[in-house]
Amino acid sequence: MTAAPPPKPGQFGLRRAVLLVVQGVLSVLILLDELVRPLYRPIADWVAQRRFVAQAEAAIARMPRLAILLTLAVPFAVAEPLKLIGLLLVADGKIVSGAVILIFAYLASFLIVERIYHAGRDKLLTYRWLAWTMGNVVALRETLLAWLRASAVYAAAMQMRDAVRRWWRESRA
Length: 173
Description:
Elements: H1 11-48, H2 51-62, H3 65-91, H4 95-124, H5 128-149, H6 152-172
Helix pairs in contact: 1-4, 1-6, 2-4, 3-4
């Protein structure tokens, strides 16, 4: 039995640099989510309270689980690629077009996909593969958030978020 080879010089520095970049990217995404949540959550709550949405959710809940899965897949299959297209447009310098597509795609995700999933969640999770996947996604998200929230980068991002919120409140007063 042979021992593991010693690490290459600089290997730990590269790993640390990659982890720092990942923390930075996650912090920015979470910061954006924290900044935008007050804007989209009231819209999502308002939409959820509409009678036609409640009727649609009730109809979805009565569907067989495969029909619910297919119903969920359609807007998801449209919204997720649109997010990527929006990011690519922003990266290409077409900021307004990219931002409009991103906003539309995120609203579609929040308002449509979320409502369908909410309505059919119990039946959808009877698929073992989906229950396993969702359990792992939630666990991974919680692990990443705990790791991120323990970092100095996250603390700085939250301070920036709070400063922006204070500025916004003061500018509206």
